[in-house]
Write a structure and sequence with these properties.
two-stranded antiparallel ribbon, 5 helices, 6 strands, globular, alpha/beta, 4-stranded parallel β-sheet
């Protein structure tokens, strides 16, 4: 059950910087069950709420811009605000979707502009991979699978260290 708050990960960079591949591998480490490792942006808040109910991590691929409503909805999703709609086939009933989820976006431009979202975000800009260092996904997949246990262990070690030192950590904002 997602209680949050969570950070939103914004990955951008030029074409050929492995934004999509990296996002998919991150998703497979943290939420390996889902069939679609990355998806297109949702069309409305209702679809976003449904997606949040069904996924431990939402990964949005090839984002070029974020409409203000989506920026606001993602900021709320990161902190755990609810979303309510009238229950289908009723006049007076309401269905509430309330959860918090971590979210990852990737895209070429610097697509996030809303200060509310940026306050909850970590931005990564990936450099392009030179042509002579590129690997196909068929080449990369077995290497990733071999490294998966160590990568997951490193993520869990980092989370454990963060929890252990949380009381003494000093946070700063830019």
């Amino acid at each position: 059950k997602g209680v949050g708050p969570y950070t939103v990960l914004l990955i951008n960079g030029e074409q050929g910087s492995a934004k999509s591949t990296g996002s998919k591998y991150l998703r497979s480490l943290l939420d390996p069950v889902h069939k679609a490792p990355a998806r297109r942006l949702q069309r409305d808040e209702y679809e976003l709420a449904i997606a949040a109910q069904q996924n431990a991590l939402l990964v949005f691929d090839n984002v070029s811009s974020l409409p203000q409503w989506l920026s606001d909805a993602i900021a709320s999703l990161a902190t755990g605000s609810g979303f309510a709609v009238r229950t289908l086939y009723s006049q007076d009933d309401e269905t509430v979707y309330g959860t918090a989820r971590p979210v990852c976006f990737n895209g070429i431009p610097d697509f996030a502009e809303s200060s509310d979202l940026l306050d909850r975000a970590i931005k990564l800009t990936l450099p392009p991979i030179p042509d002579d260092q590129r690997k196909s996904e068929d080449e990369l997949e077995p290497q990733f699978e071999a490294a998966r246990p160590k990568l997951l262990g490193a993520l869990l070690d980092a989370a454990s260290a963060g929890l252990k030192n949380y009381a003494t950590m000093k946070f700063r904002s830019e």
